[in-house]
Write a structure and sequence with these properties.
442 residues; mainly alpha; 0% strand; Growth Hormone, Chain: A
Length: 442
């Protein structure tokens, strides 16, 4: 294995480059958020279906989907390195959009005339959905590796993580809104299928948008390519076969460590995100408008409260432009928290996860760049320490007693901050650092 090349000197980009890069990553971040909406809609649908889709059924379906998602990276990672991140993202959007459409139509038919076919159809289609979803994760890493210098990636991971976290909000709270709006059919059946048809329509729209906007490299968008300064598994000029490249990845001790950490992060992340809403409904029996379930926007003043919060946030951001250093950063942080507050107290479970993801992603990214010289490990270690403390606290608060609800909510929020923050830093930023532009997908 060739030695990693030394980081290149960072040269600030032109305004034209930054603008074109914005139109590359912003729609891609929005697309990935909508893919989340079309991935975790299964959890929302399970709660709406009740015993029509048992917890055992849900666990098996989600387990198969997760297994397919993880296994697909072995194929889709090297494939993305060959076809490019743009094509991989388009495959993800079109494939996931069509499969979500098929899921919605299948659930409608099953609930209306053939309930026995519900489980099998959802099992197969959800596994296929997760196969296409896996293209998007490697596509983001592949594309952004060519557009961002290593010194920009920590801070950017926070910004990009904010957009991805909005996908969690759309998945849980947004899909709940869709189901509430859809109501029941004439036969008295909840129109659960709209939790899949809604995301399907949005994904197909984003496919059309990305077809025109997304580009793999700056040179394909009228800008100059540049040395991004990352360590590489192999030199860009060296031609390496796919199997040999996979062999290098699987024998690289640092990448193996990252993979094992991400495995543990995934277990925690999926447990918190997908099983807690079911636990809150069936074990805690919390009402639907509780902040740990669907939430209630009237608790934060509804639309008026949102406008006031956003107004305060924008005013503080504008005021910060007259300051510098820590004072400016502090004012921006307070403004951001003001904007996020309504989602935490009125946005339900999806809103809490959204706020946790924004805080976790930004804190993780900025800490790794500002305090640890773009090293990701120390920040992840700190976040895992938070997870350990949270897990210890959960042991004493999971019993369904009213006095435990507030403590449990705080612990779940803290663990979500840590898990989502470390996941974004490792799955996106660290893999860009090590893979380089050539092996970013793998």
């Amino acid at each position: 294995m060739s030695a990693a090349t030394p980081p290149a000197v960072f040269v600030p980009h032109s305004d034209a480059f930054r603008m074109r890069r914005f139109w590359n990553w912003f729609p891609m971040g929005l697309a990935y958020a909508l893919l989340y909406m079309g991935r975790y809609n299964l959890t929302v649908a399970k709660n709406a279906l009740g015993e029509q889709l048992s917890k055992d059924d849900f666990g098996e379906i989600f387990g198969v989907g997760t297994f397919v998602y993880g296994l697909s990276f072995i194929i889709n990672g090297p494939l993305t390195d060959r076809i490019g991140g743009r094509k991989a993202m388009l495959v993800a959007l079109l494939g996931a959009g069509l499969v979500n459409l098929a899921l919605g139509l299948h659930i409608e038919r099953a609930l209306s005339s053939d309930p026995a076919s519900l489980y099998t159809g959802v099992l197969v289609l959800y596994g296929l959905n997760m196969y296409f979803q896996s293209f998007a994760a490697v596509a983001i890493v592949k594309v952004n590796a060519a557009w961002f210098h290593i010194r920009e990636r920590g801070g950017f991971s926070g910004i990009f993580g904010t957009m991805i976290s909005s996908g969690i909000f759309l998945a849980f709270t947004g899909n709940e809104w869709i189901l509430a709006r859809a109501g029941e059919s004439e036969a008295g059946i909840a129109r659960t299928w709209w939790a899949f048809l809604g995301p399907a329509a949005l994904l197909l729209v984003m496919f059309a948008v990305e077809l025109f906007l997304l580009r793999d490299q700056p040179s394909q968008a009228g800008q100059a390519d540049f040395d991004t300064g990352e360590g590489r598994v192999s030199d860009d000029a060296e031609q390496v076969s796919g199997l040999r490249l996979i062999g290098r990845i699987l024998t690289h001790p640092i990448l193996l460590t990252v993979a094992l950490i991400e495995f543990c992060t995934g277990v925690l992340r999926q447990a918190v995100m997908n099983w807690f809403p079911i636990y809150a409904k069936e074990v805690w029996a919390l009402p639907g408008d509780h902040p740990l379930r669907k939430g209630d926007w009237s608790a934060v003043g509804g639309g008026t409260g949102l406008l006031i919060a956003f107004g305060i946030g924008i005013a503080l951001f504008l005021a910060s432009r007259k300051l510098s250093g820590r004072a400016r950063g502090g004012l921006i942080a307070i403004g951001a928290l003001a904007c996020l507050a309504p989602f935490a107290f009125g946005g339900g479970w999806g809103g809490l996860l959204f706020v946790a993801g924004v805080i976790g992603g930004n804190v993780a990214g900025w800490c790794s760049d500002l305090f640890f010289h773009s090293r990701r490990g120390p920040t992840v270690a700190l976040f895992y320490g938070m997870c350990v403390l949270g897990a210890i606290g959960l042991y004493f608060t999971l019993s369904p007693t009213p006095e435990n609800v507030g403590v449990l909510a705080a612990l779940m929020f803290m663990m979500s901050v840590a898990v989502i923050g470390s996941h974004g830093l490792l799955s996106g930023t660290a893999t860009m650092d090590f893979g380089g532009r050539k092996a970013a997908g793998t």
